[in-house]
Amino acid sequence: MSLQSLPMLFLARVYVTLKPGVNDPPGLAVLGGLKNLGYASVRRVRLGKYLEVYLDAPDRATAEAQVTEMCRRLLANTVIEDFRFDLSEEPRLTKPQADP
Amino acid sequence: MSLQSLPMLFLARVYVTLKPGVNDPPGLAVLGGLKNLGYASVRRVRLGKYLEVYLDAPDRATAEAQVTEMCRRLLANTVIEDFRFDLSEEPRLTKPQADP
């Protein structure tokens, strides 16, 4: 099997956030916690999810289409959440970076 | 009160991720869910947190120092998690963007 026939490895960094106006009790809890610790200058906290998804795909367009579909079907609840993601090509057979 | 005496409003976008090597059962559950939906090309999923923190500060350096301290004290468990954040100055008295 030649190198060229291998699919590429992509890393999708997915951000899932609550739509504006949707209640965010965990965010309020974090805000309260910060205030209790003395951070009076904090105005607002919104809590979301961050996912790193590694996937094989023949090209970037396919990877992008697949991740969009995954977000719609499982990763985000599009009734109350928005999602966005960046896609980067990763080297094969190396460990993902801790702080990319 | 003049405009100049008002503190600036900053938005910190905070990413909290598990350190490499730390078990991630929720990530494995998402990976399993994606496989069950037919996404055989997904290799790995790591789940993290994403927070948007709005805070007042007299300048960027102060905001940066405060957010770093908040992460260390409350937002991240630095035994098992890494954190990083971007800081941007926000216009006053406007709603935060849904998809910045």
Write the layout of secondary structure elements.
The structure is a homodimer of 100-residue chains.
Chain A: E1 8-18, H1 25-36, E2 42-57, H2 60-75, E3 81-90
Structure in words:
Two copies of one chain form a homodimer. Chain A is α+β, with helices and mostly antiparallel strands and 100 residues long. Chain A has one domain: Phosphoribosylformylglycinamidine synthase subunit PurS (Mth169, Chain: A, 2-Layer Sandwich). Helix content of chain A is 28%, strand content 37%. Chain A is built from two helices and three strands; from the N terminus they run E-H-E-H-E. The C terminus of chain A is likely disordered. Chains A and B meet through strand 1, helix 1, strand 2 and helix 2 of A and strand 1, helix 1, strand 2 and helix 2 of B.
Taking the alpha carbons of the first and last residues of chain A, their distance comes to: 31 Å
Shape of chain A: elongated
Q: What is the correct CATH architecture of chain A?
A: 2-Layer Sandwich
CATH domain topology of chain A: Mth169, Chain: A
Question: Concise description?
Answer:
The structure is a homodimer of 100-residue chains. Chain A is 28% helix and 37% strand. By secondary structure, chain A is α+β, with helices and mostly antiparallel strands.
